[in-house]
Amino acid sequence: MSHSAFTGISRHHLGQVVAELAVPWQARRESDLRRRCGQERRRAAGAGRGHELVFTDRVLVTLAVLRLQIPHAALAVMYGVHRSTVTRAVHQVRPLLAGRGYATPQGQRLSTLADVFAYAAACGIRLRIDGSEIQVRRPPPRRAGRRAFVSGKKKMNTIKFTKVCDERGRTLWDGTFRPGRQHDQTALKTDGIDGLLDQFPVQAEMDAGYRGLHRDHPGQVSVPPRKPAKNAPPEVITAYEQARHDQSSQRICVEHAIADSKNWRSLQRWTGRREYLPETIQAIGSLVSDRAAAR
């Protein structure tokens, strides 16, 4: 199970992840035990019933679920445990992966959009920002807000997220999770990007869906030029095509960053509970950013 075909990462990378998460996992486990018992531990660590899945195996089954979306029941058969044991392991390890943040070549890890803008301002990085969406299960009939997940673009139930990367296509942040009906720019404005653009002298490449941000921050946000009229002179159309091509060439790396995350089967079509998808996107993004930071 430690092969990269199952985990999506190299064995060296896997060893680093296991070593990094071992202490937070143990601390969270002790906290859960203390809350359940209502008092401090009375026996030394190691006493009592042993784990059916050791911590390393818990990380392995979580990565296998994220990478290949293997059913929990199938992994339970492979490890000789009950399906609920695998499910519990995934729910324990996935938040730890999501909370790692996103790696950078300088070694620091970024957790919020404000961290990304501060990092970009300090290092002189021109950001690339774009949205993407993932198909999810349709909410049950007669549930309030059911239509909110219907994407006008894909004509299916989706959840959207925003990807931020640098000029090398290295993922710096995933966030702004929202139902598929909400526009990308609206969600990003709700997360406070206007204030961050005012606070930090950062430039960003975006697509035509963010023209409102370009209007409010013309010196910082770059979007494709508007299409000229049908009766425009040939030289105007030629200049437009060249400008559109140049801007697209600058922005294409964010599409590659989105593809890096969607190479993981879980993000091609999400079949689990919708409330767990943001955590899954961030967990996969943190692993993808580790490899990208080494480029």
Structural write-up:
The protein is of the alpha/beta class. It folds into 2 domains: 4-98, no CATH class; 103-293, no CATH class. It has helices at residues 4-7, 11-37, 55-68, 72-79, 83-98, 113-123, 184-190, 193-199, 211-216, 234-262, 277-293, and strands spanning 102-103, 109-110, 127-135, 158-165, 171-179, 204-205, 221-222. Strands 5-4-3-6-7 form a 5-stranded mixed beta sheet, sandwiched between helices. Helix 9 links the parallel strand 6 and strand 7. The longest helix has 29 residues, at 234-262. The radius of gyration is 22 Å and the shape is elongated. The relative contact order is 0.13. The mean pLDDT is 92.
In short, what is this structure?
With about 300 residues, this protein is α/β, with parallel strands linked by helices.
**Largest sheet descriptor:** 5 strands, mixed
| Count of DSSP-assigned helices | 11
List the uncertain runs: none
Tell me the helix content. 40-55%
The geometry reads as: elongated
Strand order of the largest sheet: 5-4-3-6-7
Overall mean pLDDT stands at 92
Domains counted in the coordinates: how many?
2
Q: State the end-to-end CA separation.
A: 26 Å
Cα-atom radius of gyration: 22 Å
Instruction: Give me the count of strands.
Output: 7
Overall structural class, as computed from helix and strand content, comes to alpha/beta
Give the ordered list of helices and strands.
Answer: HHHHHEEHEEEHHEHEHH
Q: Strand-residue fraction?
A: 5-15%
